[in-house]
C-alpha cells in the first residue's frame, strides 16, 4: 500500500511540473497553476464552505463528513472523500487521501499559525498552494473573486460578490444607529452544556460585532480555535441580557435547569438558538452563512430595523440546486 501511495505522490510531482499559468495569491506569492482547475481542496472548513457556495462540484475532498441534515445541500460534493484539514486541536490532513484525490490546487488560510510549515508539507505533494485571507467576513469578497479567476467562471463570482457587497453595505449603513443604542450584552453558549464560549477578538464573534452587541464575558483567547471553557458562576457574574445558544439540546434544557434559572436571561425567556440549516448561521465553521447570521441577530436584537424575509433569496443564490426535500428549519 505504501508503495502505491509513493507512486501517486510521484505522479503528483510530475503533474506539478506541467504548469500553464500563474496567479498571485492574497499574500503576494506568485504560484504556477494548471490551465484548467476542476478539483480544489481547501485545508480548513471556512474555505471549503466558500468553494461549496461557488460550485460544489469543485470540492475534491472534505474536511469532515456532512451530517444527514447537511447532505441535501452538499450537491455534487456529497460523497466526496474526507481528508481532514488544519482547523485546531491538532487536526491535520490525511495526505494519503489527498494523493488519491489529486486536487489541482490547495487553498490554505494564510493567517494560520505555522503556515510556512503547512505549505512545505503540501509542497511535498507537488500540488500548487494558494494562501487565502480568511480573518473577516469581508474576505468573502476576495475568496469568491479568486475562485472566479481559478475556474474562469467570473459570472458566478460576480453574483456572489455582488450579494456580499449588498449585505455588507446594508449592515454598514446600520452601524451609526447601532452606535447610538446601548449594546445588547450577550452570552454565546457553545457545546451541549452551554459552558464553552468565545472571548473578545475571536473571529467566531464577528456577526455579533456587526449586530451592535457586546460580549458579556471578560476573558482572553487561548487559541484561534475558541470554545473556551467557562463556569456557570462566571456566566452568572456576567449577567447577560440574552443567551445565544449554538446547540438546540442546550437551549431546550436550560429553562428547566434550576441552576440556569438563576440567570435573568433564562427567567425572562431570552434564549435564542442559532439556526443551523442549511449550515450554521454564526460559526463552526465561520462561513458565508454569516451574511444571514448578522441579519438574524439584528432581527432579534432590533426587530424594527430590517424588513422582509431574506432566506429565500439567499438560498436561491448560494444553493441553486439544493434538494427541495431538505428538512425545514
Q: Work out the helicity level.
A: 25-40%
Please give the radius of gyration in angstroms.
21 Å
Shape: globular
Arithmetic mean of pLDDT: 90
Indicate the CATH class of the largest domain: Alpha Beta
Secondary-structure element string: HEEEHHHEHEHHEEHEEHEHHEHH
Query: Looking at the chains present, what oligomeric state does this protein adopt?
Result: single chain
The strand order across the widest sheet is: 8-6-10-11
Low-confidence segments, given as residue ranges, are 323-329
Separation of the first and last Cα atoms: 45 Å
Beta-strand share of residues: 5-15%
DSSP E strands, number: 11
CATH superfamily of the largest domain: Nitrogenase molybdenum iron protein domain
Key features?
329 residues, alpha/beta, Rossmann fold, 4-stranded parallel sheet, 3-stranded parallel sheet, 39% helix, disordered C terminus
Amino acid at each position: 500500500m505504501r508503495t502505491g501511495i509513493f507512486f501517486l505522490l510521484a505522479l503528483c510531482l510530475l503533474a506539478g511540473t506541467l504548469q500553464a499559468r500563474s496567479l498571485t495569491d492574497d499574500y503576494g506569492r506568485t504560484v504556477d497553476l494548471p490551465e484548467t482547475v476542476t478539483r480544489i481542496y481547501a485545508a480548513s472548513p471556512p474555505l471549503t464552505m466558500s468553494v461549496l457556495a461557488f460550485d460544489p462540484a469543485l470540492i475534491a475532498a472534505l474536511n469532515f463528513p456532512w451530517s444527514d441534515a447537511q447532505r441535501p445541500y452538499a450537491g455534487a460534493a456529497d460523497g466526496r472523500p474526507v481528508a481532514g484539514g488544519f482547523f485546531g486541536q491538532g487536526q491535520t490532513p490525511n495526505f494519503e487521501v489527498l494523493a488519491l484525490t489529486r486536487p489541482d490546487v490547495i487553498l490554505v488560510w494564510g493567517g494560520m499559525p505555522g503556515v510556512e510549515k503547512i505549505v512545505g508539507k503540501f509542497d511535498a505533494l507537488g500540488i500548487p498552494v494558494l494562501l487565502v485571507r480568511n480573518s473577516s467576513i469581508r474576505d468573502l469578497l476576495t475568496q469568491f473573486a479568486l475562485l472566479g479567476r481559478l475556474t474562469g467562471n467570473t459570472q458566478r463570482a460576480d453574483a456572489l460578490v455582488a450579494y456580499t457587497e449588498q449585505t455588507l453595505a446594508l449592515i454598514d449603513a446600520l452601524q451609526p444607529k447601532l452606535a447610538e443604542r446601548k449594546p445588547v450584552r450577550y452570552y454565546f453558549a457553545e457545546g451541549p452544556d452551554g459552558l464553552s464560549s468565545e472571548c473578545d477578538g475571536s473571529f467566531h464573534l464577528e456577526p455579533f460585532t456587526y449586530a451592535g452587541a457586546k460580549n458579556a464575558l471578560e476573558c482572553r483567547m487561548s487559541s484561534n480555535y475558541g470554545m473556551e471553557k467557562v463556569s456557570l458562576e462566571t456566566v452568572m457574574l456576567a449577567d447577560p441580557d440574552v443567551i445565544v445558544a449554538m446547540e438546540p439540546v442546550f437551549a431546550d434544557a436550560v429553562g428547566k435547569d434550576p441552576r440556569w434559572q438563576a440567570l435573568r436571561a433564562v427567567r425572562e425567556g431570552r434564549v435564542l438558538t442559532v439556526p443551523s440549516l442549511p449550515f450554521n448561521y454564526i460559526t463552526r465553521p465561520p462561513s458565508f452563512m454569516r451574511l444571514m447570521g448578522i441579519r438574524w441577530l439584528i432581527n432579534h436584537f432590533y426587530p424594527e430595523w430590517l424588513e422582509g424575509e431574506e432566506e429565500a433569496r439567499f438560498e436561491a443564490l448560494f444553493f441553486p440546486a439544493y434538494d427541495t426535500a431538505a428538512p425545514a428549519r
